């Protein structure tokens, strides 16, 4: 049994004391330090009780950390120096399988699947990959993880997703950086209603910067930099996951630029060069984004083979230097209806979308369709070879702040107050320059 007599403790509403787990006064929270109190992060997490802080000193840790105790905070002392490295042997860096957990101020890299996985699915938590890289949990009943926070995390060079929230609700992914995701940098899937906020993140040098599959309902993707990927952002319906179709996401105030980078993992080539793709999604609000320099198209709206795209609103975006600013294309059986555009766009396929599909739209109005030429994607690189992340902001007072209390529901943004971002949005955190 690990000696923990040196644990730092804070007693809520009382004076400080020291106590072993299982023999604590009510209301006690402790800080478990790695490696001072436990030799590995996993060992420290196994000692933690609700309300505890696991504080990790600089070092490289070769383990998968699975958190199954609610309301635990896992935090690194120095973001770029606390590194959970899977050495291409571990499936996941951190697996969050309990509600109210915060993961903060550390780096996860070189995992064959995910950097950070947050999930209520027992099958997903075991590291079982599904077809095509996602998670097909078969006949497992849907179980949502109740609340979570991923903040100030760097996830790089992971074989599926950098930060992955699957079958999870009421959480936030914020102030984080994701690169080298062989599927996507940040992913939110199988949650309706989601109650999730994705904000103030940089996702670059991934196959896809952000992906939301069968996800919507109080889902806000706001104020992020999705630039320098093969594809910037997608929101889509997919039968591989439950809760199809995707519907009801708000995508606002993001910079989505230059998403045709060759030095990225070789996936998503069917959509190479697209800024935002909506595939079989409905009821999405795409508001005041800056979408520029995407060689294929700024925004593509389409339908999956059997899931139409309905009632999407594309409002007041700033489009520039894209192959086409907007492309609406419905080549299969499923079509689009009730979709609309407001705000000036220079080039659309078919021509005149802004005039031909104005907001508000009649829900039954059939959406016009055209054909987009597809540029040939360049060769990519292995996810293990993407550029090293630049310096990223630290979690404030990481060494001295107490544990983080994760709210049962995150604070949702005031969407009306979100404007079109500048081209310099979060540029100091990025490798890929945007002009």
TrEMBL record:
SUPFAM superfamilies documented for this protein: Pectin lyase-like
Pfam families named in the record: NosD (PF05048)
Positions of the Periplasmic copper-binding protein NosD beta helix domain: 156-322
Domain of life of the source: Bacteria
InterPro entries: NosD_dom, PbH1, Pectin_lyas_fold, Pectin_lyase_fold/virulence
Name of the protein: Right-handed parallel beta-helix repeat-containing protein
Classification of source organism: Bacteria, Bacillati, Actinomycetota, Actinomycetes, Pseudonocardiales
